Amino acid sequence: MRSPSIYSQDDPLSEALKPPESETEAEREARLEQEAEAKRVSEQIDEELRLERESMKKKRGDVKLLLLGQAESGKSTLQRQFQLMYKPHSLEQERASWRTVIYFNVVRSIKHILNTLESWDDYVDDDVAFDSPISKYMGASRSGTSSPVITNLPSENDRAHSRSASPFQGNAETSRSNIASLRRRLSPLIGTDAALADRLSGGITVSGSGKGGVFVRSGWQARTIENPLGRRRGRNPDELSAKKPDDIHDALVQDVSHMLDASKDDIRELWAHATVKELIAKRRLKLDEWSEFFLRHISRVAASDYVPSTDDILHARIQTMGVAEHVFDVNIHGKSVSWHLFDVGGARGQRHTWVPYFDDANAIIFVAPVSAFDQVIFEDPRTNRIDDSLQLFTQICSSPLLKNAHLVLFLNKTDLLRSKLDNGLRVKKYITSFGERMNDYETVVQYFRAHFLQVHRRNNENRRVLYTHFTSVVDTKATQRIIGNVRDSIFRGYLQSAALV
Ligand SMILES: Nc1nc2c(ncn2[C@@H]2O[C@H](COP(=O)(O)OP(=O)(O)O)[C@@H](O)[C@H]2O)c(=O)[nH]1
Ligand SMILES: [Mg+2]
Q: How many CB atoms lie within 10 A of CB 1?
């Protein structure tokens, strides 16, 4: 009997893969050639992966920098700033892939707005205060009993009042039918949500550890290009860069692009709708910062020839799964040193994946969003985000594995903090220990900074220095200056510890 193929006879799969008895000699030859080609490609991929792993491997003398912080704090955006600074070519290669993410962000935002409008009628006031343990950090009593900080639960009267102030009052019927027809017209666009999510995540979903449910692993950019072409693409960076966005005919992305172009006016109308505006003002509709950003720029984003700008890429949101490593060559004083940057998933369900990376880390940038004083974490709607950041920072400061790491704190999203305060949001409402202090930017940032410094002081056996920066990591110019600054300070410590001086 002739050997059927390269598959082993013992392999239980062989039976299923056995060629048909009626196979002709020519067919057999073609099949064997195809199998040999598949094997060659598979081996080549394995070899490329091995080389990639090899080149990524940290060598003695390399710098290992971890970006830590809760979900949505700005770690991946900061990583993109590093990329822009030290490997701009690679960001160029990814530019087309970001279109998929941004479309996904837009589609999700519209869906969220329409869902919120729908639930308005049977709306239950969810703007209730949470029983935050923040008092543990924010001026709690020494006994450690953390009483609920926020007591201003809306009364039945308030709720009745907020109902009577419904934006559907007045021209209610017109408004309703207006929104109903927008909903109808936008429904095909909303319908692409699942397919876009699937394209980005490659079918992986992780339940319970993040709000979008869509996570990407490192290398996702290649997937947004390889799938539509029906073959592996993007392993070779030159192959990727040779493809201009226009050359990549991804049917799904093209479809969404056409729908967006056709729905531009509807999206603008929805975004400018009095009811939507009022729901936002009343904080019944809470939009993420990237939603607002892309909706504000919808004319540009929905244009059929849209190519994401660098600013768009910095504002796009996609959740990181696990730990993604990025390697940059950093030149300093005429010396090139490889920096390994580790960007982690920040949701609570992801934090256990960090620990194996703590070993031999040279430096940490802890990113804490100071604008988040009025937000809770997705994983636990009773935990205020600043409180979660402080708890997490306590763990990082006190971790014995990290005791020799250079420690940098980014108090991030200062631009958003400023606009929240300008819009009259009062810190005291969410953090009662803030008390009667002035509700201005300077007072608020210094107040938060003091709490982080206190956590550091209380968990600082090694007497290490904490370097703090007020940041807005979407601001390229300012962030690059700070990165330069951080690089110099990390490098000074690194030279000392590596005794390279
Ligand atoms: N306006 C503003 N947006 C920010 C800032 N930092 C991050 N973002 C946005 O917040 C979202 C979450 O950031 P990301 O880097 O993905 O957070 P990660 O979960 O810590 O990686 C993205 O849409 C970012 O563009 C900031 O300083 N200012
Ligand atoms: Mg991230």
A: 4
C-alpha 33 – ligand 1 centre gap (Å): 50
Kindly give, in sequence order, each residue whose CB lies less than 8 Å from that of residue 252, ignoring residues fewer than 6 positions away. Answer: 192, 195, 196, 199, 228
Strand-by-strand arrangement of the 363-369 sheet: 323-332, 335-344, 63-68, 363-369, 406-412, 466-470
Distance 363 CA to ligand 1 centre (A): 21
pTM score of the predicted model: 0.77
Q: Residues within the annotated binding site for Mg(2+)?
A: 320
Per-residue pLDDT for the chain (501 aa), expressed as one digit of tens each?
444 444 445 555 555 566 777 888 898 898 888 888 888 878 887 887 777 766 667 777 899 999 999 999 999 999 999 999 999 999 999 998 899 999 999 999 999 999 999 887 534 334 333 333 343 444 433 333 332 232 232 333 333 444 444 444 456 777 777 889 999 999 999 999 999 988 887 755 544 334 455 666 666 666 565 444 333 333 444 444 444 444 445 899 999 999 999 999 999 999 999 999 999 988 889 999 999 999 999 999 999 999 999 999 999 999 888 899 999 999 887 888 999 999 999 999 999 999 999 988 999 999 999 999 999 999 999 999 999 999 999 999 999 999 999 999 999 999 999 999 999 999 999 999 999 999 999 999 999 999 999 999 999 988 889 999 999 999 999 999 999 999 999 888 767 766 543
Q: Which residues contact 79 (CB under 8 A, 6 or more apart)?
A: 67, 324, 326, 341, 343
Nearest C-alpha to atom 19 of ligand 1 is from which residue? 72
User: What secondary structure does DSSP assign to 243-266, as a single string?
Assistant: S-GGG---HHHHHHHHHHHHHHHH
CA distances from 429 to 127, 152, 420, 484 (A): 11, 8, 13, 37
Ligand (nearest to CA of 216): 2
Which amino acid, residue 277? K
Cβ(470)–Cβ(411) below 8 Å: yes
For residue 40, give both structure tokens: 């060659």
Taking residue 313's Cβ as centre, other Cβ atoms within 10 Å add up to 20
CA-nearest of 486, 471, 501, 481 to 364 is 486
Q: Is 478 in the pocket of ligand 1 (CB under 6 A)?
A: no
For residue 162, what are the CA distances in angstroms to 118, 158, 267, 284, 393? 17, 6, 27, 10, 38
Half-sphere exposure for 335 (CA within 13 Å, toward CB):
12
Nearest bound ligand to the CA of residue 375: 1
Closest ligand 1 atom to Cα of 314: 25
| Cα dihedral 103→105→110→112 (10° resolution) | 150
Closest CA to 392 of 379, 404, 465, 315: 379
